[in-house]
Amino acid sequence: MRVLIEELTSKVYLTPFTALSALMYHVLISKGIQVAGFCDKNARLHGESYENCMILDSCEIAKDNAEKVVIVCAYYTQIIPKLRQLGINRFITLDQVLTKNHVITSLNMIDKKRICELAPKQMLRLNHINHEIRKFILPEVALKKSSLVLSNVEFPITEKCTLRCGHCSNLVQYYKTPRHIEVEQVCSDFISLTKIVDFIRLLKIIGGEPFLHPELSKFLSFFSEYKENYGSFQLTTNGTVVPDDITMLMLKEADVYVQISNYCGLSVNCSKLVHKLDEFEIAYQLWDNIVWRDVMRIVDKNGIHDAHRVFCECTMPCNTVKNGRFYHCPFLAQGETLQVFPYDEKNHVVLDSVCKKEDIKSYIESDEYHPGCRYCSGYSKHNMIVPTAWQVREPIEYTRLG
Ligand code: SF4
Ligand code: SF4
């Protein structure tokens, strides 16, 4: 539901401290609304200020007894429950207040130098703020109470990769005969999904290595035609393949945001790719120094396995669509293809003509773990750190149970 800025009468706090909350700050100030403070969990920022507005710990905001509202500018699903735990119950999400018009009028007011001092990683967001904002500004159809908006949906377009990382969360390391996914399949899955959900904030095409797919250009032109159904469009690559000029032009045309996972020595063409993306003025993020954990690995069903705990601690943010089915995460999608676990219809939602919004809602909001979770090492900060992009020579053996 849209909230008009003019209707904000109580004290306003903004959280977390990001390029987007700084933008929101300027929007509010330009409308004569004072901002009482930013709040961020990063202790390094506490006591610092942006435009004389202090950055605080959320506990301090909880102690403020004045009538207050917190505008949550990112990571809604993680931040809102934490605010509730602190007894803060009045909050608005950024997409309820921010409009395209606000962005146009306030973007140049942002103090980039100060943001760079306080939160250097946010500069990248500022450089490609249009992509960031598109995730947050929802179309009218997605603002109704009954709307279903998905944050992050991945479409794997290939199981093939130029690398074989032992801890790949797309389970590439287990495929003996990886294949490219057919264009018709992915397109029809996407159309089925758009008939059910109202909006996808972030649409991703992933692999394996998506640049290996010989028909990548067909995917790009297809998704370009459905821009009203999603906010930002991202492709994740490992920096080993440099696409030809025609593909580069299509990436630009489709307004793709390229995320490059830079595995240093392994990402052999990373610099060439970056150079080409610069040349074609395509937005990208170079993701360096990535910390890997032992997540979404196949585990023995008789091993650790408290599936309920693993599922409760799991923070895997990406839903996956593959072969006409909607999955909570890549593990369930790839695990079903690989027959890691016995077939169980509770592991997915079939995107057919009888599938309804409520089916997807109850599937993703369920407190019950999925049967396939019993075979997964989970995805949480408690998982052990492992060497980034450690390579295995041969596909890893596992027992097929499907
Ligand atoms: S580069 Fe590694 S992590 Fe990425 S898809 Fe390939 S095998 Fe998986
Ligand atoms: S624990 Fe379950 S939901 Fe989490 S990544 Fe594993 S299979 Fe997916």
Structural summary, described in words:
The termini are far apart. The chain has helices at 19-30, 58-63, 76-85, 94-97, 100-106, 112-118, 121-127, 129-136, 183-196, 216-224, 245-253, 270-279, 307-313, 330-337, 357-365, and strands at 11-15, 35-39, 49-50, 53-56, 68-72, 91-93, 149-156, 199-206, 230-237, 256-261, 284-287, 292-293, 319-322, 325-327, 348-350, 385-386. It has 402 residues and is α/β, with parallel strands linked by helices. The model has no long low-confidence stretch (mean pLDDT 92). The strands form three sheets. An eight-stranded mixed sheet has the order 11-10-9-8-7-13-14-15, sandwiched between helices. The chain has a six-stranded mixed sheet with strand order 3-4-2-1-5-6, sandwiched between helices. Strands 12-16 form a two-stranded antiparallel sheet. A hairpin with a 2-residue loop joins strand 3 and strand 4. The chain has two domains: 5-136, Rossmann fold (3-Layer(aba) Sandwich); 141-386, Alpha-Beta Barrel (TIM Barrel). One iron/sulfur cluster is lined by residues 161, 163-165, 168, 170, 172, 207-209, 238, 389.
